[in-house]
Amino acid sequence: MADVTIDNLTKRFGSIVATNEISLDIADGELVVLVGPSGCGKTTTLRSIAGLETPTSGTITFDDADVTDRSPQDRDISMVFQDLALYPHMTAAENIAFPLHADGQQVTGTIDENVEEVARATNCDGFLEKQVSDLSGGQRQRIALARALVREPEVFLMDEPFSDLDELLKRQLRAEVMRIQKERGITMIHVTHDQEEAMTMGDRLVVMNDGEIAQIGDPDTVYSEPSNLFVAMFIGSPQINRFDCVVAGDGVLESGDLRFELPVEDAEALAGATGEEVALCVRPRHLTWSEDPDDGALAVPVTVIVTEQIGTEDIVRCETEDGVEVTAVVPANTLEFGEEGYLVFDPDHLHLFDGYDDSAERLN
Amino acid sequence: MSTIRGTLAQFPIPDRLEDRNLAPYLLVGPAIATVFLVTIGPMLWSLWLSFNRWKPGSLAYQTPEFTGVGNYAWLFTTQRFIDSVINFVYYGGFGVLLQVTLGTFLALALYNYVESRAVRIGLITLFTVPMMYAPLVAGRMWQLLLLPGGGVANGILGMVGLPSVNWLGSRWLGLTSIMIADTWQWVGLPLLIVYGGRASLSDSLYEAARVDGASRWMMFRRITLPQLRNLIVVAAILRFMDAYKFFDKLFIMTRGGPGSATELPTFFTYLVGFQDFNIGRAAALTWVLGLGSILTMLLFWRYVQTVEGV
Fold first, then answer.
1. Residue B244 and residue B233: Cα distance in Å, rounded?
2. Between the N and C ends of chain A, which has fewer C-beta atoms within 10 Å?
């Protein structure tokens, strides 16, 4: 396995900039997840690493070798494709053996052994002789994984391979991939638009937007200290609550009729910014319900409009008098439609950004 | 009747007919009668004739006269017919092989190596335009190109100092020349079929193969060819069916000659039927050729199914 260095990678398709000067270091044996909405450049980045796209500028290095101009065949990589790209006219076993045949060095006996070994590791030894067209979605997925794992490549790439599976299977396969990745110390780069998948799988997340990297960090950091407004809005489910405010004075924000007096340490970040636009964000988990909040607490008066039960908790969607929607997570069955009260902010988990657009940077 | 609306409902079928259930027969009757009159009837008649001696132009057999399997016996003991079958095996076998192989090769070369879409479409058009020529015209053109004296082909040979060749003047060379003329005209068909098939294959298959480390040759052998196999067989069957009834270029380019050296079974049948007016023998010939072609197609089909293996 190798470490991967991407340096100032830019890829243009005509006038469209798919990735704009991306730089990224991936350590040997690390599982990095590229996550972002459709069109953010994550797949282009992955395909550039694979050699399926030729960068407009920038370099890609495996260990110390510059592979930018090498064909995929000469990069020693494995990849699981979004549509899996299994060879439809072959059996499962023939699919798995294909990369070994392509290597051209192994004798038939060892090929069979290798195929069986990887099939056991990915739980697909039960249907090796079946034709691809006779396999279920989950089985195909396992074959695609097995085909990618049968060699020991320098880098292992995955392009949203789980997106077509049902939730249960998705979780199961995710867990298996992570187990194999850790066991074998694979350098793995995984692309997904599913922020939850990214949070559960990644050693590190690379959050991308509009062809640029918005934030790189471990899942906890990205969740608790999003570096800009886009990351805050994209990561976390249910989505973070956001109030577009104007600084009204020392540590005081106003949004319509709402008035927020910030705790001292957050107030400092706003010193001298009176009149500036600031987005105040707080995650639904950091809101609590109160009929009668303490004086001086940060709270907004709301009415409950929808409750959704998720196990032991409810997601409660509320509305302020001005029609601003606020979401909170509260213990199950504590609130009902139409109830009126206050949502109180946890002062330790406020996020402030210096504007209203995606690139607005974190202030506190 | 209540469910029929609109125009039809204004002309209800009389109840009396409906009661006797004659209506369906009356409705499909004309179509069945037509099929019988123009297809099945004549077929059965020709089958009957193939067991008769009938030569309308001669004194001896002015009316059909039953001879049992006489016509068939004559057929299989006539060297000229057997030679024409051998000619057909050569012409059909190598001709179809040549057209399909060349068409496949051109299609894949165009798809993989010609980057400009305009150039690609231009070349495909060039290769397919000859299909629109009347076969007789194409045949005449090639005949002129291959004329022993004054033909373009020999002219070119002369310019580089090579001796002239009598392209249509002997059995195998003559058949080969006709084969080449027909390939020129028809290579566009397998080309179009295979090109369409290749264009519909998912790019991600090839991306996966590249990532897996496959060489170009391996992608061709292990992915392109198996994926296109059925289409290639279809193209071969279409060309083979055409080879069976092949007539026009042969008629214009060699007339089966010199002597009967380049005769194909269809041409021989034409001579027996329309030159000698030996209708009974010609009928026997058409039945042998017809059954032969059906048998070949069944074998083709069987082959396709066994290779598919499921």
1. 16
2. C
